[in-house]
Specification:
The chain is mainly alpha-helical. The chain is about 40% helix and about 5% strand. It is built from twelve helices and five strands. It has a three-stranded parallel beta sheet with strand order 3-4-5, with helices on one face. A two-stranded parallel sheet has the order 1-2. Helix 10 crosses helix 12. The longest helix has 27 residues. The protein starts with a strand and ends with a strand.
Length: about 270
């Protein structure tokens, strides 16, 4: 069994869970494997500068190396809990370039940027990453995978709909109240739906902080068609349901549905937490 730790590509480690809880009692002997991979600015700093003089999605390349370099040959089945459908812009998208420029500025690299970053102390780069995250108080995960044109050439929705995935059996699911508490953790009051003066715009700001290409028109249409406030009573609960389904719940259905449509064994679960 190969286990990839979670954490939104910005945190987490292999020490987050006791392996015995996942493999006990095994029906037959097995080998349990996990590994660390670069996170945050060290693993997922994007931009055209990195594309031209570095490695995009370095954290994913670490994962590939940890798998032995050929995931298509290695895996015979895949399972996961709370699979995240993250915002996946192109490496040269304005959103990504702005993060790169902001990070470089915090690191004190305003000219010969790549040379400067490579010469910088690791602690200085760690601090610059933390400052970049803090400067985006409406966003949960600032550093994340991006379309790089080589390793990641297609967004997950298009890939699964087009059948461009490893054809192996799958088991995926989500938890009760997947979207709970995320907005409440945001320092930006205008995107924190737990604030007493929260409005429909607060919910939009929260979601747009995670998916920057989300338009107000698309959001309003979704509220009208699927998430009317009257069904939830509060903006906090409304935003919780929208975010939980956007990022986690519907992703499990996307993966298992695509596998089933291609004649593969596919199982979906819901873990009830209360």
């Amino acid at each position: 069994m190969v286990w990839f730790h979670g954490g939104g590509f910005q945190g987490g480690s292999t020490h987050d869970i006791v392996p015995n809880l996942m493999v006990q009692p095994p029906s037959s002997p097995l080998i349990f494997v996990s590994f660390e991979y670069r996170l945050g600015q060290f693993g997922f700093l994007g931009g055209s500068e990195i594309k031209g003089n570095g490695a995009l999605n370095a954290g994913l390349l670490d994962q590939l190396l940890g798998e032995g370099g050929n995931s298509g040959r290695l895996f015979h089945a895949v399972m996961g809990d709370s699979p995240s459908l993250s915002f996946l812009p192109s490496y040269d998208d304005d959103y990504v370039e702005a993060i790169f420029n902001q990070f470089a500025a915090f690191a004190g690299c305003n000219s010969n940027v790549m040379k400067c970053l490579r010469a910088s102390d690791g602690n200085k780069l760690a601090l610059a990453g933390s400052q970049t995250i803090a400067a985006r108080p409406a966003t949960l995960y600032t550093f994340a995978p991006i379309l790089d044109g080589s390793f990641l050439q297609e967004r997950p929705v298009e890939a699964f709909k087009g059948g461009h995935f490893a054809k192996v059996p799958v088991l995926f699911g989500s938890n009760t109240d997947e979207g709970a508490n995320w907005s409440a953790s945001l320092p930006d009051a205008s995107a924190n739906t737990s604030m007493p003066n929260a409005t429909q715009t607060t919910v939009y700001n929260f979601l747009r902080g995670q998916f920057s290409s989300l338009t107000r028109g698309s959001f309003d249409q979704a509220v009208t068609d699927f998430y009317p406030l009257s069904d939830y009573g509060t903006f906090s609960l409304q935003g919780q349901q929208m975010y939980g389904e956007m990022r986690y719940i519907c992703t499990a259905g996307l993966i298992t549905g695509a596998a089933f449509d291609h004649g593969l064994k596919a199982y979906q679960f819901q873990y009830v937490t209360h």
